[in-house]
Amino acid sequence: MIRSVVRGTGAALPRRIMKNADFEGMVETSDEWIAQRTGIRQRHIAADDETTASLGEAAARAALADAGLTPDDIDLIVLATSTPNNTFPATAVEIQNRLGMHHGFAFDMQAVCSGFVYAVTTADLYIRGGLAKRVLVIGSETFSRILDWSDRSTCVLFGDGAGALVLEAGEGAGTIADRGVLAASLRSDGVHKDKLFVDGGPSTTGTVGHLRMEGREVFKHAVGMITDVIEATFSAAGISAADLDWFVPHQANKRIIDASAKKLGIAEQKVVVTVDLHGNTSAASVPLALSVAVADGRIKKGDLVLLEAMGGGFTWGAVLVRW
Ligand code: UT7
Question: Would you state the pLDDT for residue 144?
Answer without folding.
Answer: 98
